[in-house]
Amino acid sequence: MLLTVDNLNVFYGAVQALRDVSFTVGRGEIVSLIGANGAGKSTTLRTLSGVVRPVSGSVFHDGKAIAGLPPHRIARLGIAHVPEGRGVFANMSVRENLEMGAYTRSSRKEVEESFDRVFGLFPRLSERASQLAGTLSGGEQQMLAIGRGLVQRPDLLLLDEPSMGLSPLLVRDIFRLIQEINRTGTTILLVEQNAYMALSVADRAYVLETGEVTLSGKASELRKDPKVREAYLGEAKG
Length: 238
Hints:
It is a single chain. By secondary structure, this protein is an alpha/beta fold. It is built from ten helices and ten strands. The strands form two sheets. Strands 6-7-8-3-9-10 form a six-stranded mixed β-sheet, with helices on both faces. It has a four-stranded antiparallel β-sheet with strand order 2-1-4-5, with helices on one face. Helix 7 links the parallel strand 7 and strand 8. The chain is globular.
């Protein structure tokens, strides 16, 4: 397994946000975490990337223990986190934003190769390389946020709510790109409230409810699960 999470417990003050959360992500997979607002999905990603420190539990990435390491060390090990809300630097150009993600690259040649890959996936970013990020559309900003993560050349990409605030047409575009990124060799852990789309692209999925994993399995099977259909796919019981 590329990522193994075992009995992860996280608190915000006196409030427990994650309770004995365990799951795995195999190399080459797309794995989705689905659940309602406040279920602990984003907290899970923030813990994996080092932004939040767990109280207990273990996280292994490619066999290395990473729980509690600072974010810059985790990034250098090959994990890139694309946060909820995009977080682009509005007053910097597209290219400057991408360069902010390139600090883990060791040579200019590696940086340029990473840029070529990102511009190949997102031609619109190439066209707008000198444009200020704050003037991009919402869909373009999401592409930029994902591109900034990919410049790190991660083996594991953590994507948090990539479809948030986008039109249905752009949502389909983003999910097609997620599949393309995965096909080119990047493993993806996807947090997404659009459960239908998340389960459509994922190999496997986990359902989080109030900080606990309550269901898991192949994404195709979870799409047929009556509880998932009613709670997350907007389908009433027959």
